[in-house]
Amino acid sequence: MTFLIALIFLTIRIVDLGANYESVARYLAKTYEYHITCLNLSEIENERNRAMNREESLDKLMIVIKKSFENMSLSNSSFDLV
Asked: What are 42-67's pLDDT values in tens digits?
């Protein structure tokens, strides 16, 4: 429980693998101002995700990338949560 409470007060970076439309990530970005990177292969879902982020003024906190989690080239220290 202490860990969860601490997360509320930190600016953390989250990567979502297979992001789809991202309602949970959008909630975290909106509520706690977490920085979210969404990886997903479907460009149709990605475009909808980006549009929803713009509509809610979250496009500064959420990045949507067309990429497979199997081929991501990110360092281990890039994100705090996966």
From this structure: 999 999 999 999 999 999 999 998 88
Q: In what order do the strands lie in the sheet with 35-40?
A: 13-17, 35-40, 62-66
CA nearest neighbour of 82 among 21, 15, 20, 28: 15
Q: Find all residues with CB under 8 Å of 2, minimum gap 6, and list them.
A: none
Which CATH number covers residue 39?
3.40.50.150
Q: Which helix (H) or strand (E) holds 62?
A: strand 62-66
Provide the residue range defining the domain that includes 29: 14-71
Q: In this structure, is residue 81 part of a structural domain?
A: no
Number of domains observed in the structure of the chain? 1
| Contact predicate 33/57, CB 8 Å | no
- pTM summary value: 0.77
